Amino acid sequence: MAEVTQLIHQYLRHNKKFPLVFCPGCGHGIVLGSLVRGVHALGLSKDEVVVVAGIGCSGRIAAYVDFNTVHATHGRALTIATGIKMANPALTVIAVMGDGDAFSIGGNHLIHAARRNIGVTALVLNNFIYGMTGGQCSSTTPEGAYSHTSPMGQLEAAFDIVELTKAAGASGVARGTVFHVKALDGLITAALTQPGFNLVEALTPCFTQYGRGNGFKSAVDMFKWLKEKAVPRETYEKLEDKAGRIPIGVFVKRDAPGLETRYAAMRETLRAKKGGAA
Amino acid sequence: MSQIRKKRREAFLLGNEAVVEGALAAGCSFYAGYPITPSTEIMETMAKRLPQVVDGVFLQMEDEIASMGAVIGASLAGRKAMTATSGPGFSLMQEQIGYAAMTETPLVLVDVMRGGASTGLPTSPGQGDVQQARWGAHGDHPIIVLSASDVPECLEMTVVAFNFAEKYRTPVILLLDEITAHTREKIGLPEPGDFEIFSRLVPTMPPEWYKPYEETLRGVPPMPPVGTGYRFHVTGLSHDPLGFPTARPEEVRAMVERQFRKIDRFFHDIQLVEHVNTDDAEVLVIAYGCVARSARLAVRQAREAGVRAGLLILRTLYPFPRVHAEKLMRNCRLVVVPELNVGQISREVKRVNEGYTAVRTINRIDGQIITPSQILKEIA
């Protein structure tokens, strides 16, 4: 444990921004740890990593890590990440977003980032709720779940983040949970190495705003729930009764160059053509 | 100012195309946008030209909000970046403009104004975005707003816009109108060295000493591109000199005051105008954009008819060129402000004038130009 803690300390702004803003029982800190371990495992320097985050609880993650960090406007993290990656493709650009940030207000940017397959890794911290604004439903709140803006139970269907991103054309799509930490570490490391647009959905509990209103007794209950309901994709497919179960693992893994690479190639071709003509 | 009006390689360009020439002359290497009339030629020309520029990047984004985001990101990565739009798109960009002002991110935004409100008159001129340019983004923030009235000026003012953005670490808005943007004129293309080009100050101190939002002698802290060893936090939240969120009243106040001060104290550099016969003017016309061209003829005709008329053409709209306007107005018996809106700059004129001189406005909001004779009627 001490080793893990020391490793994380190398990457945190521990003398500036702590303690964390997150509630007790929140899973966001675990994702933060996974992110740091992923960067460390790949041997990336702190200077070549850029973390762009949106607004909300997950958005605060950017302030804690000692990378180049941008705390964007609500829903627009991917737009700024796109600008940075296209301006300097050598950088490893990570967009950290909540479910509301990525798929409600920023839904259009997400499907387009996937479609243009920009070389950005999107980390979506899905806790099924708007936490920082006090517990309103998001576009991933399950049908029937209670929130301050669905006091009679959510009537609208929830987005399946994995299916949506897959359909939009991302290079890599994966889902993990903060209970299955080792697996999550692996998913993030893989996403960071794969060219093109990669999305990792991390299921993370929000006891304060979601759990309490939906029958969970404690944050621990929510972790237990993740442990029971989440099953590896391969196992999930063989299940007879899939109700309430959540497949985790890698869903898309394709070797396609990122937009920044394709753009640079186009520029080269153009220059070669011009040179040839002259 | 007018070097490019003489000699040089000549071209027959739209105002919008001249904007691109100005941007490239200023060192712009990144464009992200979303098509909208009447600004589209800027984007189309950029799509052709930028891939030919070393490291140039052109992106068509999914909407105007994304365009501004990409431009902000590119600027943080050290590029001179721009976007262009028109009224409805400009409205969508407002939140991000505020973010750029708050984070002190240099960028250039060209808004080719059309008749409004809403979808309004997509292919007709208007000047209805003046107050939106100044106050569209929420909260108190400084901004620089420029304007141009003919094709060579489109080029020059784009260069000026980039220079101001870099010099003062701020978003700069260039307001054109449909007529200026779609007028085709002969123009001399710039050669390297024609313009003084500014690039942002980058820090030279060791990274651990660097404070991205520190008060400096000029009030404009240096700004390193991300990825060069200076790791700092960029946020739209009220932040301390290190860039981290703060809600301490003294820190919040100091930051906002510095942001305003860095623009205000350089008003002699920023407030650009052109004087036409203003020395002995007893009637002063204040105009900008396409209306300034009508005003030029009207003033000449008034002089021929024996009226001592003068014209002050505004190239900078904000900070409002008070130092120029105030002095002239005190010596006049009448100030005339023609514009293609219900009175967005005349509001500033009256504010600066403080009731000393009579102010007459000419306003047109039907998508039609204000003619020289319409202005002449008011001044002669």
Question: What report would you give on this structure?
Answer:
The complex is a heterodimer of chains A (278) and B (380). Chain A has 278 residues and is of the alpha/beta class. Chain A contains twelve helices and ten strands. Chain A has helices spanning 2-11, 28-41, 61-64, 77-87, 99-105, 107-116, 161-168, 181-193, 207-211, 219-229, 233-238, 259-277, and strands at residues 49-53, 68-71, 92-98, 120-126, 129-130, 136-137, 172-177, 198-203, 230-232, 246-253. The longest helix of chain A is centred in the C-terminal third of the chain and has 19 residues, at 259-277. Chain A is globular. Chain A starts with a helix and ends with a helix. With 380 residues, chain B is α/β, with parallel strands linked by helices. Chain B is 37% helix and 21% strand. Chain B is built from 13 helices and 16 strands. In chain B, the strands form three sheets. In chain B, strands 2, 3, 4, 5, 6, 7, 8 and 14 form an eight-stranded mixed β-sheet that branches. A five-stranded mixed β-sheet of chain B has the order 11-13-12-15-16, with helices on both faces. In chain B, strands 1-9 form a two-stranded antiparallel sheet. Chain B is globular and about 70 Å long. Classes of the chains: A alpha/beta (278), B alpha/beta (380). Chains A and B meet through strand 2, helix 4, helix 6 and helix 12 of A and helix 3, helix 4 and strand 10 of B. Strand 2 (68-71) of chain A pairs parallel with strand 10 of chain B.
